[in-house]
């Protein structure tokens, strides 16, 4: 059903009570619907409908006190996720779209499927990977300076992804499996965002169709006005009435054309924003994968290497220090034997003769050699129609032109931010005292619908574009 916006509403800052004038809320509004004052840009959930002229919000109103204000109450929501929906003729569409995007983003959790990575074995060559896996399995193989994920397709290696630009880790641990889990969830969210982007594009086409329909209605109204003027010649009284009706029809036609243009613009912005979110989610999924799986010798940051690097380094230590046994399998191990335990993604050494299996908590016969830290959490995704300073790990979508987005103050190596723009080419990224690409200069995003992701390296390099 369409929004309910009959009459006017009066609101008081700090109060949850909304008073209506000319309203029939009892029969047309329900608890859980979303209330907003035109131009306020914030939606509030209705906690209860008290009468035809009074509702109570779930939280106190935080905007400016106003009497007799234009308002709207959204009554259409998706099932089961309760995302607000739009209907032709609705007002405050940017506020509704923003609410929907924030609800979608709250379901994001940037990560990669734990099962796929924790079960995928790592080999130093493709041939070894094919020999050590079955059809349908995933495995990793080192290719020069890159770390490549393959699937075994009936004895043939099919490349699934390459990883060459990673965030730091210091040692092996069960956190490698946690990092893999985080990356998997983010890939799923990226796919969901891509699907949502496609749905937004479909909605955009639907809005364009509605716009064409409105233009056709406008032409029909103009034609009816012309006919009324022709028939007006029958009598002076009829002519006066017809001329008045013709004037009203022309006004309605102009209003329909204006609404059609606004609908097309809003639909386009919605599609652009959803597409940008899909790109960011995909970038985060790839970044999380890099935590656990960088190739041997690849330096993530100065002096920092991946979990896989340390595992393979152990394998290269001379037998005078350790008796490296490779991956664990059931059997007898002697004092000085060291190995890699695939289920826990950890390396162990024993100082006694044992047949026990090590685990991430440590057996009485096994000592844990190394473990890796967890990957960073999901980014904070925001939208802004004004100039602002970013926080660390903030991904900001800019919704207005000629804005300046300032990078975080006092960044640390590894800090990541992103800035996405819609259909404009004049957003400035201010460096806030740090270099950008080794230059002491601000940068301008001069492409429409562009997302720029930056990582802080050091005082000399400053922020680098990923």
Helix-strand blueprint:
Elements: E1 8-11, E2 17-21, H1 25-28, E3 34-37, E4 44-51, E5 54-57, E6 66-69, E7 71-74, H2 93-106, H3 114-119, E8 121-123, H4 126-132, E9 138-143, E10 146-153, E11 156-163, H5 175-231, H6 236-293, H7 307-316, E12 323-327, E13 337-341, E14 346-350, E15 366-370, E16 380-384, E17 388-389, E18 394-398, E19 404-406, E20 416-421, E21 427-430, E22 443-445, E23 451-458, E24 462-465
Helix pairs in contact: 5-6
Strand order of the largest sheet: 6-1-2-5-4-3-7
Helix content bin: 25-40%
Total of helices: 7
As residue ranges, the low-confidence spans are 108-114, 165-176
Structural class: alpha+beta
Overall form? elongated
Radius of gyration of CA atoms, rounded to a whole number: 31 Å
Strand content: 25-35%
Largest sheet: 7 strands, antiparallel
Number of strands: 24
How far is the N terminus from the C terminus? 45 Å
- Estimate the mean pLDDT confidence: 76
Question: Quick recap of the structure?
Answer:
This protein is of the alpha+beta class.
Folded structure, characterized:
The protein is α+β, with helices and mostly antiparallel strands. Among the domains are: 8-106, no CATH class; 307-370, no CATH class; 380-465, Jelly Rolls. It has seven helices and 24 strands. The protein has helices at 25-28, 93-106, 114-119, 126-132, 175-231, 236-293, 307-316, and strands at 8-11, 17-21, 34-37, 44-51, 54-57, 66-69, 71-74, 121-123, 138-143, 146-153, 156-163, 323-327, 337-341, 346-350, 366-370, 380-384, 388-389, 394-398, 404-406, 416-421, 427-430, 443-445, 451-458, 462-465. The strands form five sheets. It has a seven-stranded antiparallel β-sheet, with no helix packed on it. Strands 16-18-20-23-24 form a five-stranded mixed β-sheet. Helix 5 (175-231) runs antiparallel to helix 6. The longest helix has 58 residues, at 236-293. The protein is elongated, with a radius of gyration of 31 Å.
């Amino acid at each position: 059903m369409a929004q309910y916006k009959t009459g006017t509403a009066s609101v008081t800052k700090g109060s949850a009570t909304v008073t209506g004038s000319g309203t029939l809320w009892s029969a047309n509004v329900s608890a859980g619907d979303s209330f907003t004052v035109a131009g306020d840009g914030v939606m509030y959930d209705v906690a209860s409908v008290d009468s035809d002229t009074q509702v109570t919000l779930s939280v106190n109103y935080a905007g400016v006190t106003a009497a007799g204000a234009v308002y709207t109450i959204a009554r259409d929501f998706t099932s089961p996720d309760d995302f607000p929906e739009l209907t032709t003729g609705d007002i405050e569409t940017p506020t509704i779209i923003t609410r929907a995007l924030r609800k979608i983003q709250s379901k994001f959790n940037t990560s990669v499927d734990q099962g796929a990575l924790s079960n995928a074995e790592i080999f130093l060559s493709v041939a070894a990977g094919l020999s050590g896996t079955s059809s349908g399995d995933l495995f990793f193989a080192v290719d020069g300076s890159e770390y490549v994920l393959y699937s075994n397709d009936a004895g043939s290696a099919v490349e699934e992804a390459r990883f060459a630009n990673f965030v730091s880790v210091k040692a092996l641990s069960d956190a490698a499996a946690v990092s893999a889990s985080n990356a998997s969830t983010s890939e799923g969210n990226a796919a969901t965002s891509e699907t949502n982007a496609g749905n937004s594009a479909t909605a955009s086409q639907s809005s364009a169709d509605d716009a064409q329909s409105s233009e056709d209605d406008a032409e029909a109204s103009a034609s009816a006005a012309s006919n009324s003027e022709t028939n007006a010649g029958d009598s002076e009284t009829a002519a006066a009435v017809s001329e008045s009706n013709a004037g009203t029809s022309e006004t309605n036609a102009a209003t329909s054309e204006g609404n059609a243009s606004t609908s097309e613009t809003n639909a386009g912005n919605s599609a652009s924003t959803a597409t940008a979110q899909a790109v960011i989610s995909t970038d985060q999924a790839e970044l999380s994968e890099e935590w656990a799986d960088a190739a041997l010798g690849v330096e993530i940051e100065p002096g920092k290497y991946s979990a896989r690097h340390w595992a393979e380094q152990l394998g290269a230590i001379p037998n005078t220090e350790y008796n490296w046994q490779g991956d664990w399998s059931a059997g007898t191990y002697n004092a000085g034997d060291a190995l890699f335990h695939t289920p826990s993604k950890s390396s162990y050494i024993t100082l006694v003769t044992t047949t026990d299996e090590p685990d991430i908590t440590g057996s009485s016969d096994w000592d844990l050699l190394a473990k890796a830290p967890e990957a960073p959490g999901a980014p904070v995704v925001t939208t802004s129609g004004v100039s602002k300073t970013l926080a660390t790990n903030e991904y900001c979508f800019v919704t207005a032109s000629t804005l300046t987005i300032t990078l975080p103050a006092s960044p640390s190596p590894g800090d990541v931010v992103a800035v996405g723009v819609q259909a404009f080419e004049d957003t400035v990224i201010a460096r806030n005292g740090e270099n950008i690409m080794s230059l002491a200069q601000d940068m301008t995003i001069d492409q429409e619908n562009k997302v720029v992701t930056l990582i802080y390296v050091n005082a000399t390099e400053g922020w680098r574009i990923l």
